[in-house]
Specification:
InterPro entries: His_Pase_superF_clade-1, His_PPase_superfam, PG/BPGM_mutase_AS, Phosphogly_mut1. It is an enzyme of class 5 (isomerase). One of its GO terms (biological process) is glycolytic process. It is a single chain. The chain is built from eleven helices and 13 strands. Strand 2 and strand 3 form a beta hairpin. Helix 3 crosses helix 4 and helix 7 crosses helix 8. The protein has a domain of 223 residues: Rossmann fold, CATH 3.40.50.1240. It is α/β, with parallel strands linked by helices. It has a seven-stranded mixed beta sheet, with helices on both faces. Strands 1-4-3-2 form a four-stranded antiparallel beta sheet, with no helix packed on it. Strands 10-13 form a two-stranded antiparallel ribbon.
């Protein structure tokens, strides 16, 4: 075969410092690297010596010379692909939603909302069980709310994952925070998963109900009024948020951040709360305001969606029992 035929395709590939390329062998200390997968060889030449700080998830552009027609190696499935590559290439990624495990105020039947309360022993067990159920699904990034119960759930779940990668919370609240949390080992970066925290994923703020016992609140305000605050779409509790208000911030953040990562082939875990996740599911499944108010989520149970061709396909709860409460369901 002529040499010109062997090297007939040149493409540009973007690799990210926070990508999940565990199956590839990369030596960033040299000026080139080679990726080999099932007879497909790519020689990669560096174009830039820029810093590869994990905390900034920088993009590095390389030229790849292949011996076949354009093919993306499976180990690079989470990398962005330049527009020069066939636009018809199908990108499939996983989205896992997990409502945090039982919190200490869940246990005491108190309105929690934006109050930062940790998990109970049962909540810890639920988070660990959730991790076992998703242990075989690749994870490239994790998003959590700014509240400890969601962050605990994500961290405990990942202790069970077969990738054995370490979840690391990214701090960008100040220039100093970014500088002080940088990682300078490329090997350590490849063994880590970035965790992004966002207040937009917080539980809805329950205003003057926060910290009150739910049964006592019914006695004080009446069953119908409390039911309206908890289950209507657009009626907020006193000085609090309605589900509609929570939805506006949670869905906007999802579309601007998480969905963008899914479009680029990254597999994402979102650990958050009943109302912020109901809001996201409303967007994913195109539910009406009435349908979403009847949506129930079990604590500590992962929900799986596959993103493909711009569509979210519901796959249920990975490796879970069969009772109706395992997956989000609509009450009759």
């Amino acid at each position: 075969m002529a040499a010109g035929t062997l090297h007939r395709s040149i493409r540009t590939i973007q690799l990210h410092g926070c990508s999940n390329d565990s199956a590839s062998t990369m030596d960033y200390g040299s000026s080139s690297l080679k990726l080999i997968s099932k007879g497909f060889t790519v020689d990669v030449k560096f174009l830039s010596n820029s810093s590869r700080s994990f905390s900034h998830c920088k993009t590095h552009v390389f030229h790849a010379i292949s011996s076949h027609a354009p093919v993306i190696d499976p180990t690079l499935s989470t990398s962005h692909v330049n527009a020069n590559i066939n636009q018809n290439t199908s990108i499939e990624s996983s989205l896992i939603l997990i409502r945090h495990g039982e919190s200490m105020w869940n246990e005491r039947n108190l309105f929690t909302g934006s109050v930062d309360v940790p998990l109970t022993k049962r909540g810890i067990e639920e988070a660990i069980e959730a991790g076992k159920r998703i242990s075989s699904i690749p994870v490239n990034m994790i998003y959590t709310s700014a509240l400890i119960r969601a962050q605990m759930t994500a961290m405990l779940a990942m202790t069970q994952h077969r990738q054995k990668k370490i979840p690391i919370i990214m701090h960008d609240e100040s220039i100093q925070a970014k500088e002080w949390t940088q990682i300078f080992s490329e090997e350590t970066i490849q063994q880590s998963i970035p965790v992004i925290t966002a207040w937009q994923l917080n539980e809805r703020m329950y205003g003057k109900l926060q910290g009150l016992n739910k049964e006592e609140t019914v006695v004080r305000y009446g069953k119908e009024k409390v039911h309206e605050w908890r289950r209507s779409f657009d009626s907020p509790p006193p000085h609090g948020e309605s589900l509609e208000m929570c939805s506006q911030r949670a869905v906007a953040f999802f579309k601007e951040n998480i969905e963008l990562q899914l479009q680029n082939g990254r597999n994402i875990v979102v650990a958050a709360h009943g109302n912020s996740l109901r809001s996201i599911i409303m967007y994913l499944e195109k539910l009406t305001s009435q349908e979403v108010t009847n949506l129930e989520l079990s604590t500590g149970v992962p929900l799986l969606y596959i993103y493909k061709h711009g569509v979210f396909l519901k796959r249920g709860s990975p490796v879970g029992p069969t009772e109706y409460g395992v997956y989000a369901y609509t009450r009759v």
